[in-house]
Amino acid sequence: MVLPDTHVGYIGDTPTYSLGAWDIAMQALAHRAERLTHLVFLGDFGNWESCSHWASLRAEQCFIEEDVALVNARLAEVEAIAAANGIQVVFCEGNHEAWAGQMEAKYPMLRDTINLRRRLLFKERGWTWVPENHFWAIGDAHFTHGHLRGVKGPRDMVRITGASVIYGHTHRYRTESSRNLTGEHAAWELGCLASFDPPPPYAKGALPDQWVHGFGFVQVRSNGRFQVSFRRVIDEAWTELEDGTELRVRPKAVARRYAEDQAIRDRLRAEYGERFYHPGGQVVRTEPHHGKVSKRGEVSPVARTRRARIVRTLPGSQ
Ligand SMILES: [Fe+2]
Ligand SMILES: [Fe+2]
Fold first, then answer.
1. Omega prior to 198 cis, within 30 of 0
2. Distance 95 CA to ligand 1 centre (A)
3. Is there a domain that residue 276 lies in?
4. What is the reported pLDDT for 310?
5. Cα 46 to ligand 1 centre (Å)
6. Mean pLDDT across the stretch 151-177?
7. How far is ligand 1, taken at its centre, from the CA of residue 229, in Å?
8. pLDDT per position as a tens digit, 53-110
């Protein structure tokens, strides 16, 4: 089974993952668990707002501990099913996970504090970590996150790798194949489980109109040839597996996970204090000095823009 970009996390109080689509993915995992050998995460499993270099010091940016705890809670859910059924778990690092590495490179003293592979207990869980832009392969099928230079779609992926690749990153569902002297190769983008209503800030203003919820199953034969199937999750509420099983979202399970997430966030906020620049906090505001006033009572615009004074200060700052 293949789980694409989930973007677990919150921006303010808005979840960045689809709790409905996640519930259906977990039902599908439990339903097929006995027949599965591997579970592959395609990356961006967490949204990692805390490590985002796009969101640096934005009002809603949360603490790293919050992201780590939320992601670990969802991974524990997967682990319970995977461990009970002997499913091997492979985790491709996405560009959102790679933000943590970039933060460590910028602030080396944080190296052991952030280290996601360690904080997400990969050693203890016995899971495989595939670094960003690396590939994990079984038979002829290659898996990666897909944040590769020059790759704008499946055709580019086949052209650049010369192999068959299943990847995420774009949050779309697309596939293309191409035959050449080395045989037939195809690439698949397997959608996402991320929330796209409202559009998240990492979409950087682009309309996520082609994003689609879903997950995949890959059957690999002993000669390496394989079959991919994508199961779309419609309206964050239902899907149907190939065996005809209909899966519907369980509102109680969604509410339980949401409450669990809020409990994690409340506990950590109590421990680490409120977020930076909480809307209820003090504001430093500047106001222009009045410049020279003419005889007619007009204020010189140059003086207005060049000089300012602080009219209100944070308590304790002089
Ligand atoms: Fe993503
Ligand atoms: Fe990505």
1. yes
2. 8
3. no
4. 43
5. 9
6. 96
7. 20
8. 776 555 567 888 999 999 999 999 999 999 999 999 999 999 999 999 998 888 888 8
- Which one of the ligands is nearest to 97 CA? 2
Domains in the chain, number: 1
Query: Does residue 261 sit within a domain?
Result: no
Residue 294 lies in a domain: no
Distances (CA, A) of 108 to 94, 100, 112, 212: 21, 11, 9, 37
Average pLDDT over residues 257-280: 76
How much of the chain is in helix, strand and coil states, percent to nearest 5?
35, 25, 40
Cα-to-centroid distance, 99 and ligand 1 (Å): 12
Is 237 part of a structural domain of the chain? yes
- Cα of 192 vs centre of ligand 1, distance in Å, is 7
* Residue 171 Cα to ligand 2 middle (Å): 8
CATH number for 87:
3.60.21
For residue 238, how far is its CA from the centre of ligand 1 (angstroms)? 22
Q: Is the pLDDT of residue 45 over 70?
A: yes
Centre of ligand 2 to C-alpha 265, Å, is: 24
Q: What percent of the chain has pLDDT over 70?
A: 85
